[in-house]
Amino acid sequence: MIVRPAESIDRSACIDLLHESHEAAGFTWPFLPDRAGLLFDLHCTSPLACCLVLAADTVGGLLLASVFDHPFGAGFWAKETVWYVTPSARGRGAIRMLDAYEDWAKNRGCAVIGMASLATNDVSSLYARRGYAPAETHFIKHI
Q: Which of 19, 80, 92, 122 is at 20 to 30 A from 25, Cα to Cα?
């Protein structure tokens, strides 16, 4: 499997991966395919975003991220929007996706790169091995 920027031909497969990710995370709100398509489009077309796929015969992984200027003057940061790899494609390919994301962020002049770990799929030990440090904990409340 190779890591490459997504192309328009990958759109349907990436929406399917976003749906699979939504279910795997255990989100209780409905998955909206049209919104997922807009998210894919935004990350593919914005110069401040990226859409990477892990692909061979099929797309087995997706990493969406964007760059922002930190509001407290800490320079440009890269922030993952979603990273999902199907169980059958996990392993070295997922690590290559992380490598490609880090290279993408460096090439855009980012001083910091961020990743998230869901409570339902804690991959924080992988991040720690890669040099990431915990920064903050987010709490959500449905209203």
A: 92
Tokens of 11: 């759109």
pLDDT tens profile 61-93: 999 999 999 888 888 999 999 999 998 888 888
| Cα 63–Cα 69–Cα 72 angle in degrees, nearest 5 | 125
DSSP 66-117: EEEE-TTS--EEEEEEEEEE-GGG-SHHHHHHHHHHHHHHHHTT-SEEE---
How far apart (Å, rounded) are the C-alpha atoms in residues 101 and 37? 21
Report residue 135 as tokens: 């920064």
Give the global pTM.
0.88
The structural domains of the chain, with segments of one domain joined by +, span 2-117
Quickly state the pLDDT bin for 120 (edges 50, 70, 90).
Answer: low
- Listing DSSP states for 24-67 in one string gives HHT--SPP-HHHHHHHHHHHHH-TTEEEEEEESSSEEEEEEEEE
CATH code for the part of the protein at 2-117:
3.40.630.30
